[in-house]
Amino acid sequence: MLESVKIARRQSEIRQSLAALVGKESATEDEVRKIEELDREFRSNETRYRGALIAEDQERREAGDELETRSDKEWAEMMAGFELRQVALALDEGRQLDGKTAEIVQELRAAGGFRGIPVPWAALERRAGETVASGTPDPIGTRPIIDRLFAQSAASRMGAQMIAIDSGAVEWPVTTSSVAAGWADGETASVAGPSVYATTDRPLKPEQTLGITMKVTRKAMKQTGSALEAAIRRDMNGAIGEALDRAIFLGSGSSGEPLGVVAGAATYGITSTAFDAAASYSAFRAAFVRFMIASAASSPAEVRVLIRPEIWDYLDGTIASGSSTTWEWDRLIKAVVAGNVTMSANALAAPTGSPAAASALLTTTAGGVPPIFVGTWGAIDMIRDPYSDAASGGLRLTALATMDVTVSRPAQLQLITGLQVA
User: Is the whole-model pTM more than 0.70?
Assistant: First the structure.
């Protein structure tokens, strides 16, 4: 029991005793002496009580922080024990799931219907000690929350947020009005207004399904053993990450694809500026100014930039105007944090035209609201095809994921086109 609680209870007992003694009309010497002793103890306890509250305040704060993150840590630890190898063997041999894998699958099945075995998005994160294609260890430390977007994806680095949705469509109301203050013109005049406070709904709908098919031979199943766990996760991570990145930015909005933010800039209301000249820092500087005027960013350092590798090659080989030692690329990374620049040949279309020109995308996070929402429904549905490879004893897996893309405020994104790199 806390010391402050003990003291508070003792103070209550003292008050009861004093009430009984003081209520007597003629108190004896012993009773008067008792009143004085209780009074001294009461005053002393008041000082001790204040001291106990001060000492226990830090303990309460630390305990509260632990309670706030305990569930996230427990979920991360449980997810670290999910084994894709068990899923593959269950689909191939009918082996029973066990341990943390069985618990997670059971929870996912309770949340929604799946034809096959549900696999959580967080299970595609690379685990500590796994190797990448080059064979270099790539350990990842334990985090309270596992990010459901792949860490190296362009969408993640550009500030996109993945939203887990159980079922149905979800709308995100975002404030899009401009409520303004005004001064009263005179002693009896009214202030400006009223200004309309309006929101725009950004819907995410389960209308697009991404799928990959993976063929695992019987020889691979028998030879790899536990290494199959890392191989399947690595391949699924790469395949889904590449397709998801491309759809988020370049999705056509037809043929089953969601509408990407670059391809659908006009539909989303994103400002698109045609530079139509040799790529230079001035094109990005003008976009930074538009961001700051729109109050979406307070400085260039808050802006994330997505470019093609060809633009980096051109800027890094072009001397800045009016200088003999400064490159255009140096001016760009001086204005923005170097870590805020992302180069991707997958998320942006290749340069076209004569001279060849590419596009660049700028995003910023305003008021804690991410510029892009990526909705995923449930988990990845892992289904086995028992017929296609039956003759060879192989295992063919199909992974299905339902997702959609939308933007929050169009003012948090800007597109620059016509950046010539020839």
Answer: no
